[in-house]
Design goal:
Two copies of one chain form a homodimer.
Chain A (H helix, E strand, L loop, with lengths): L2 H19 L5 H8 L9 H12 L4 H26 L3 E2 L2 E2 L1 H5 L1 H23 L4 H29 L6 H25 L5 H28 L2 H4 L5 H4 L5 H9 L2 H10 L5 H37 L5 H15 L3
Antiparallel strand pairs in A: 1-2
Helix pairs in contact in A: 1-4, 2-6, 3-4, 3-8, 3-15, 4-6, 4-7, 4-8, 6-7, 7-8, 8-9, 9-14, 9-15, 12-14, 13-14, 14-15
Amino acid sequence: MELQEYFNEIVRNVDMEIQNRLKGDVKGLYEASYHLFTAGGKRLRPLVVVSVANVLGGDINRAYLAATAVEILHNFTLIHDDIMDQDTIRRGVPTVHVKWGVPMAILAGDLLHAKAFEVLSDALKGLENDRIFLGFSEFAKSTEIIAEGQTMDMEFENRNDVTEVEYIKMIEKKTAQLFSCSAFLGALISKANDYFLDKAKILGLKMGTAFQIVDDILGLTAEEKDLGKPVYSDIRESKKTILLIRALNEASESEKKTIMEGLGSKDPEKIRKAAEIVKNLSLDYAYSLAEKLAEEANRIIEEWDSNTSIGGKALKYLVELTVKRRK
Amino acid sequence: MELQEYFNEIVRNVDMEIQNRLKGDVKGLYEASYHLFTAGGKRLRPLVVVSVANVLGGDINRAYLAATAVEILHNFTLIHDDIMDQDTIRRGVPTVHVKWGVPMAILAGDLLHAKAFEVLSDALKGLENDRIFLGFSEFAKSTEIIAEGQTMDMEFENRNDVTEVEYIKMIEKKTAQLFSCSAFLGALISKANDYFLDKAKILGLKMGTAFQIVDDILGLTAEEKDLGKPVYSDIRESKKTILLIRALNEASESEKKTIMEGLGSKDPEKIRKAAEIVKNLSLDYAYSLAEKLAEEANRIIEEWDSNTSIGGKALKYLVELTVKRRK
């Protein structure tokens, strides 16, 4: 089977499950909850869940359910993040709070959050008792960790002394944790042993960290039409990305001044000037970090699979995509 | 054991469990999550969980955990509701979004939501497989139903033709569902059979519906210091309570005009005049509704327990309190 066909099949099944799960009497609420799913998205996390399950011999239908739970959880966090960051565009469409107002967007996120647990419950049915609790606990803790990461991200906006170590800690929580949980669930429903479960978590963590670093890079380098949202918003919102942290460390006094003038500014020219300097001083470094993480992820995949299963090929492709993507 | 002592013991145990569960590195987030717990609250839902478990012979420590899960879930909904309703005071203290801002309040609610599932998971450990899934599914569905109820409540603010049937449906979702889930969990962890589980749900539903009706009454009749929040806020926010619906149905044309002038108004005098008419036309009716529901709840308690166990006495007292309370 071709890789693209393999991915399409997963996305089709997960999207169908999502659609079936998001039906209810209170129409406005379900429309708001379903909005971002219809606007595209890469479904990366579901692809990770199902591909890990493929490599480790898990049941495919159970994998689709776990993948659906993760994607629903992810979209809940997107809806709430957009409110907090006051972002107006995502995936090229108005964000939920722009279209339905903040109260409905809060409720839509809450609905998806609960729905994710409901779907997870179905994914875990039939597993052994201690594995069921392990699944629930990892899923709940992931959400808590994501909230911690998002809090750190916001707190960092008001600080100019954020270190690279703090940044990595923050994106591990905010972004990588859900990739980690995705790979873990793929392994859990495959009845993998504890050693494999731990390796799956690490694989997801490396992949997710690389993904966020590249996300931060693309926020400075991609075209608005590819990004699906305005460029340079990280500079405008004074987000402490690895690029900014590295650039501030490397900058001369005058460069530093230009960067600081752009941070949190409303002036497009000041923002652009700051962005240019940040790019010059940090791009190579940020890419090399992401590539190192990708290599580490690849080593785990190779330990599991010597390039024979479609799931193994899929995971290697996803790791490559994480670093090489342009949007 | 005296009833008050029995209740104190439950509250002490649940509060200790809540405190132990809400510790974490990201300080601001955990402080915001813990804020409302420190400001009092009646812990009614935990008392229901533990008392039902007492009547039906459930394990007390498991009951404390289930009660903690419910109380944490309840406080998550309060934090998010206060953002949506733009309420500034609850339990006599500033609401979370007033004290920490909307973004942190959204995250604090999300953290508590996930934490509730984590604690529930511990409460269900050791039960039979199908009962574990029943517990998770009821808990997740309850949150979805609460979100539906809150959506209806908001949608009703823009309508003047809400019927009594619609109101009851809305408060069953918004408020009574979590009482229903509380009684259900008390029965579930007691390994009750399906018949008892259903009865527990109905008991909670009746009690919760009565509770919300009386809540709406107190919003018009209580003193601000007892209420812990401003009086007449339902009139100011144009909330379609049973009192308003009944009053609009019974009012003369001139009374109707005065009521409509008060709804959503910022003028304290107009609000007060509207409130007086609403009270005159609806208080007896609303109380008689609440009392009827309380009687129905009592019949279920008497079916379970002929006034011998402390849990049975506690439940009867709680039903009475629901209707007779003054704050």
